[in-house]
Specification:
The chain is α/β, with parallel strands linked by helices. It has 16 helices and 21 strands.
Length: 485
């Protein structure tokens, strides 16, 4: 990120993470190693998968963790924290190990997508930023990919800056949308910082600012002859907008040897208007001119437009993408999975709840993706203990961790570890890839999922299964902690 955009976000934390840190220190357990998992429970919009994003910003956060004198004085003013704890924060140095799935990876409920291991004060303290960073960008990357898939190969640009929840929502939302498959963004600063192509034409105010629609089109064509896209729906798309656009193309661009790039329709019945516009452009000799549509689009509207035969070549999608309006919360959580005892032995921990979906999977874990050697497609994900290995020379029996009688025997397969080391003892060991590489990686990984998993409605459930050893630990802890008086 550009130096002018870097901020010290150390204090962007829930207050209880600080009060607990003080408590851990006072109890003499602050330096005990603990393992926390970040995972999510529900896929937005009832989809079949989500897309992990935001790791680059999380790495930046970890690398810039430090408490300033102002931070220390603020905490001292609360009269809740010991001087020993404030001195600890003054000399704070991040020392945790971190693993994460790579950005652009399709991910599924209940599997660890970020794992943090280190002194419990530190591993607990970073909870809010782990969740805030990964939740937001994963949400927008997932939503944008749904919209991109609905467009069936037609370009989708992110047009939502002005409707985003804050400037960070606009900037990083555009970044996530690019990972998910958008080709560009209306957000100029995101182009400057991340190299995502900034796109845009004109607003209705440009057309209204001139005495006539034709004058507005003519002046724009004169200024931008090599990249002329005209907004044709300010007054009447078919009666004035498209005819005036064709006239500007004929009288300004054609004599100079330029070809117009397109027209944009931002209101009305886009299916009907685009078909009529296509006919008018073709009859005028502009069959190469593209038609772009915008106006509160989402994946369902885009799918319906194409089913209705709309002649749209590209889409600009705003608020429904940048806010994931239909499912605005990703819902990732960050839970303790294990902690050292007084003898230095790591002990698994579980959260038990009457709500089945809130029961956690304990212990220090690894995550693998199982691929069929025959088809090359992903079969299931497999969560194991951290030190377990998967023997690919023997058949693998996987089973549903809840409905344990549901089993599957897998042969002729390979496994790929999904959790990549990011930090070791507080030192970054992962080389962050260029954003274009993340986007390409995401596209390739999605191609390895079955089409049935990618359905919008009632997608096939992709299974995330536990190894027998991990399931046994979970079952034992549930038995130990689930009882009634």
């Amino acid at each position: 990120m550009h130096k002018d955009m870097k901020r010290n976000l150390t204090m962007l934390t829930d207050f209880y993470e600080i009060t607990m840190g003080n408590g851990y220190l006072k109890q003499g357990i602050g330096e005990r190693k603990a393992v926390f998992d970040m995972f999510f429970r529900t896929i937005p919009d009832g989809g079949g998968f989500a897309i992990a994003a935001g790791l680059e910003q999380l790495v930046e956060y970890f690398n810039n963790l430090k408490f300033t004198e102002e931070d220390i004085e603020y905490l001292r003013s609360k009269s809740q924290f010991s001087e020993e704890f404030l001195d600890y924060l003054k000399h704070f140095k991040f020392e945790c190990d971190v693993w994460a799935v790579k950005e652009g990876t399709p991910v599924f409920p209940y599997e660890p997508i970020v794992v943090v291991r280190g002194p419990i004060i530190q591993a607990q303290f970073v909870e809010t930023m782990v969740l805030l960073t990964i939740n937001h960008q994963s949400l927008i990357a997932t939503k944008s990919n749904r919209i991109v898939r609905a467009a069936e190969g037609r370009a989708v640009s992110e047009f939502g800056s002005r409707r985003a929840q804050s400037y960070d929502g606009a900037i990083l939302g555009a970044r996530a949308a690019y990972i998910g498959g958008c080709v560009g963004t209306a957000c100029t600063i995101t182009d400057r910082e991340y190299g995502i192509p900034a796109v845009g034409t004109m607003a209705h105010s440009w057309v209204q600012a001139f005495d006539s629609e034709y004058d507005a089109f003519k002046k724009y064509a004169e200024i931008y002859p090599d990249r002329c896209v005209l907004l044709v729906d300010t007054y009447n798309t078919l009666k004035s907008g498209v005819p005036n656009a064709i006239r500007a193309f004929d009288e300004v661009l054609k004599p100079k040897g330029y070809r117009p790039l397109g027209v944009r329709i931002d209101s009305g019945d886009i299916a009907y208007l685009s078909k009529k516009t296509r006919v008018m452009l073709d009859e005028a000799g502009y069959n190469d001119v593209k038609i772009m549509a915008s106006n509160s689009l989402d994946e369902y509207i885009i799918r319906d437009l194409l089913l209705q035969g709309a002649k749209v070549d590209s889409f600009g999608v705003g608020e429904n993408l940048i806010t994931s309006k239909s499912a605005p919360v990703f819902g990732g959580v960050y839970k303790l999975a294990a902690i050292e005892d007084s003898a230095g032995v790591m002990q698994p921990r579980i959260k038990v709840s009457e709500s089945l979906e809130k029961i956690t999977t304990p212990d220090f874990k690894s995550l693998y993706r199982i691929f069929s050697k025959e088809s090359g497609q992903a079969v299931a994900d497999y969560v194991t203990l951290h030190d377990e290995t998967v023997d690919t020379t023997q058949p693998l029996i996987i089973f549903d961790p809840i409905s344990t009688w549901k089993k599957r025997r897998i042969t002729n397969f390979e496994v790929v570890p999904l959790l990549t080391p990011i930090f070791q003892q507080g030192k970054q060991v992962y080389q962050l890839p260029p954003l274009s590489e993340i986007r390409a990686y995401c596209d390739h990984q999605l191609s390895l999922l079955w089409d049935e998993v990618k359905r919008f409605e009632y997608p096939h459930k992709y299974y995330v299964d536990l190894s027998p050893a991990l399931w046994q630990i979970r079952h034992q802890l549930l038995e130990r902690n689930s009882y009634s008086d």
